[in-house]
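QA checklist item 7 of 12: single-chain prediction sanity check.
[x] sequence parsed
[x] length recorded as 806
[x] structure emitted
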Amino acid sequence: MRISFYIKIFFAFVIFAILLLGFSSFAFNNFYEFHNEKKEKEHSLNILNHQKDIFNSFIKNYDEKLFLVQNSISKKEKDDEIIEFVTRSLFNDKNILSFVIVGLDSKEKLKIEKKSNETEITQNNRLKSIFTKEYFKDMRILKYNEILHYSSDINNSFIIDFIIRNKNDFYVITIDIKEIFDKINNDFSKKTFMSDIKENSNKDLIFDEENYFIEKIYINEKQFFILAIKNEKNVNNDYIKDYYESIIVIGFCIALFLSLLFSEPIARLNRKIEDENKKLDLSIKQNFLELNENQKIMDNHIMFVRLNKDNLILETSSAFCYFLGYSKSELIGHNYNILVHKDIKIKEQREIWKKIRVGETFVGEIKGNKKDGEVFWISLFVEGIFENKQLVGYNIICTDITNKKKIEELYVDLNKQVEQYNAIFENVNSGISLIDSDGNFVKLNSTFRKLLGYETKELLRMNCIDIISSDSKKLLKKILTEVKEIGNISNLEKIFVKKDGTFIHLELSLSLLSSDKNHLVFVVNSLEDKRKLQELNQNLEQRINQEVEKSIQKDKLHQQEQIKNAKLTSIGSLAAGIAHEINTPLTYIKGNLELMSYDIMDLPQSEIKERMSYDSEKMKEGLNRIANIVESMREMSQSSKEIKEKTNIYGTLLTSLTMAYNRSRQVCKIYLNEKLFDIDSLNKNEFIFCSKVQKQRIEQVWIIVINNALDELIKIDDYEKRVLNIFLFEEKDEIVVKFKDSAGGIKEDILEDIFEPFVSSKEHSGMGVGLNIAKKIVDEQDGNIKAYNEDNGAVFEIRLKACEEE
């Protein structure tokens, strides 16, 4: 059964009357509470204003101290004086943590820090650049003597950087403000709460104005602290029990009266409201359609994505899909990592999700890849989705900042290029300066300063006319005027005046800047290098003439060698013929002598028989010597084959010693492997040391070395002190031949160049090419030759490859 609207109204008014009387009973109490709250508010606001004044006085005190420090330091030129002054005047204050001098290019020049009650001074290459710090952009626009405050939270401790602009740099004092906050909390009757540093005055306020009295303390135009005192409310409702019965009776009577009085008007009003509700339903439907339209607009223009707690994509906007080049079906259900660039570390991502899981929001930047592989940068606002205090997903709103990042990279590259140009400017060997149209110095490098002996500050206060000799001042003024029309003038030799009054000849060049017609590049170069270059050119010409003369001598030598080779070839042919002609009668004589020996043996024993036997033996020895010489001549005169063949090196040594025997027996004793060489008893197979070489070419090397040794040994007066030892042995798959004499050794000044052409120790003969030829022959045989001194004599050591065993 539907209850009558009038009955509903009746009971409603009864209840209303009871409530009305109840509220009336509280009127006086509410007025009293309001009065107390007003007094409480005034008291709290007075405290907050006083605390604000204390904090502002604290800031003002350090502003004044920073001005005093700036004025004092600007009068000091040396770093040691600045360090001593800062340490003595500032670091007695326990609130001061550090003092830094920063250049206009963002690089730190000097840094003094307080660590464990001691000051630590940082200079040189340990200093860093503050270009990446947030407040550097605000620093750059400061005017001279203008102060900037910037606050930050380091290790849960609040600090404020006081920054003042000087002419050529910035002074930064870092202050720990813990002491002032402790004072604010401890010196007042009410407890004061303090917020973190805020960057926007309309967002992220942790104290609501309903429950707290708050006061903002601005550090700069963007940052401020919030001081808050809790608004305590005291409400006492016990007294309502005393009026309970009266309220019930009066309320019931009023309800009856009002229900009878207002039933009909309220019924009419109810019908009117029903009609309005129908109109409201139509309006809601219309608003719903408009909302859907707005959602479509947002979907097409706002980049949005929603993830579940496992980082899978649940929903994304069309704008985000269009930006990435994906369709919604390609993104939904996939992990968000398909969009994240590989440069973003997993550890950084975990920090983001960890922050959001505890109820915080994340605002930051991230790098990613589009579908086509293009790299992009977006700014993210990420917040968690919670149901029953449990994280179920994430909402992410994105903004494209790719172009901004590209501009920042260009800006960084530009700064690097500026640094590189400055480095080149400072380290170039020429003295370079920038002057204005009147000739005043604007900028100069260290080379320019060193050439003239001035300090940089002194030259910047001078004109280029001031540093040139008086005879050239008018000419330089004229050149400064003409270069503006011509564009550049170079290679002018002028006399400049150094700081100490001495003169220096420099080469001057002037160039008008194409981008700035009011400035010129003033370049000076020392003429000492030019003169040195001229001397070098002269020396080079002399050296070339010497080398040409040597080449002419070499050509003459080669011609002589060719003639000599032709002669030797003829002599070899003649020697071969002579050897053949001698060998025939020699064989005949040896045969007849042998028959005659048999006849002598048949004779009876007598003095004549003994004399004839003795003479026949001597004749045999002579014939054997002739036979050995003829055999050596035949071998040496054979046509040289330009191919390498297996050769017994011991045999080649015997052949060469035989050819040199006629001279060597008059000069010195020769020992081969510690055995005295004797032409009468030769056995070429006594030792076998095989190497694959050109036989006649190697024999030529032995003859050259032996003759050189004989030329030096003959200079010794005492024959007994003359000796040539030849050692032949095998070592590590190499055949080693050593010629060691006792002639005093090779002079040290020619020892290293002994195998070079035209190097000789002989005073009256020899052109110094024999050993050069020998070295070339040994090199052609894949061998090695070296010379050194040992035991008061020269040693020539030749190494050849031994034949591999077959």
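[x] summary fact logged: The mean pLDDT is 78.
[ ] second reviewer sign-off
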